Amino acid sequence: MTPRTAVILAAGLGTRMGGKPKGLLRVAGREILYRTMHLLRENGVEKFVIVTNELYLDLYREFVERHGFEAEFVVNSEPERGNGHSLHLARSRVSGRFVLVMSDHVYTEDFVAEAIKGNGLIADRRPRWIDVDEATKVKVKDGRVGRIGKGLKDWDAVDTGFFVLDDEIFKVTEELEEEKGNYSLSEVVERARLPVTFVDGLGWTDVDTPEELKRARKMLVFTAVKGTGDGFVSRYLNRKISTRISYLLVERVTPKEMTAVTFFVGMLSAFLTLVSLPLAGILYQLSSILDGVDGELARAQLRTSRLGGYIDSILDRYVDGTFLALLVYSTLREPLWYLIASLALLGSVMVSYSTERFKGAFCRDAYREVPALEKLPGKRDDRVFVTMSVLLVPSITTVKALFALLAILTNLRVAATVYLIARTVSRPKTI
Fold it and tell me: Can you tell me the distance from the alpha carbon of 356 to that of 376, in angstroms, rounded to the nearest whole number?
């Protein structure tokens, strides 16, 4: 059963971050705590219990009210007693299963979606975005925590700072309160011998220093690449450039602003076909690279929306249509080539329409439903790159060859898309 409550430990003083509450530090345009609470809420959590200190209470309270989260606050007036004590203070606010997270950990959407299904300590055997030497390691025995600590030499996984617990854990904190008074969460975990669930290789990191904040930003951008639907050129060229642009812009530019810039560059490239075909081709390819940035920013900043994707798709069609139409106007004179160019333009529009119409008709993503579509050439990024390559050394002959290639390639792709989708949809479902 999915936990409906989450406890967030935020009582640390953030001394290595200039005395700022780490949960309110912004990474990729959003506060760390906003990311955690938003993603947990998306996965069924309804109530939050935030354990903080007296110094930061008002700041966290204002943050919660501003973003509309339902949260209760517990004040730890003695944060020096350790984060195990912070957990203990939340005992009267929790019953049954609950999630426990740290306010200074940054998680990606796919990590949270998997972690919340787990039980006990969520551990990672293949951490990608942390300094393992500084991480808390876990030695697992019979599926449970055997030992835990930063200094372990023999270990199996790394503690991600994400836990799915039940209120039985407070029996352990009660024992440690009586025995020690000051104790860490790691001591609670080891004493309780929590079960371990492995969530390996997904995006998560903690933030203790400014350098780690930069690493978190990089993680969020580089894991924000669209999972499906990219063409060959996007996978092997455009994304390698667009993610680096997104990393530089993610704290400064919104997805809407980037969409407007990309549209302007695309339309400028179209009108430059009347002046300089090589320059037009280069700007057209640049607009194709930038076309990935707004989506990356939206995913990294947690600002994705169906409307944004809808508008972006329409603007792409305007850019492609205008570019090809003005390229025809500036280069071709024979009526036969007007027809061929019209087929190229129609096919370019239909490549997108053939998959988007599937989504409208069946409410499923065509690329997830029919993985073979990923291997078909002729997506927008492929076409733009081929167009740029031809226009770098333009001639009437090469432009004619370009339109002939686009007419054949795009319409064959549409035919193949229809065939593959029809075969998949009509296939009997196995039980």
Answer: 16
**Hey, is 229 helix, strand or coil?**
coil
Q: What is the DSSP string of 186-214?
A: HHHHHHHT-BEEE--S-SEEE-SSHHHHH
**Domains in the chain, start-ordered, CATH in brackets?**
5-208 (3.90.550.10), 224-426 (1.20.120.1760)
Question: Distance between CA 145 and CA 11 in Å, rounded?
Answer: 25
> What DSSP string runs through 38-106?
HHHHHTT--EEEEEE-TTTHHHHHHHHHHHT--EEEEE-S-GGG-HHHHHHHTGGG--SEEEEEETTEE
pTM of the model: 0.88
- The answer to whether residues 220 and 27 touch, using CB atoms and an 8 Å cutoff, is yes
**Predicted confidence band at 226 (pLDDT cuts at 50, 70, 90)?**
confident
What is the distance between the alpha carbons of residues 73 and 244, in angstroms, rounded to a whole number?
39
* Termini Cα distance of the chain: 25
Per-residue confidence band for 338, with pLDDT thresholds at 50, 70 and 90: very high
Q: What's the pLDDT tens digit per position in 45-61?
A: 999 999 999 999 999 99
Residue 140: φ, ψ to 5°: -100, 135
Helix (H) or strand (E) run with residue 145 in it:
strand 144-149
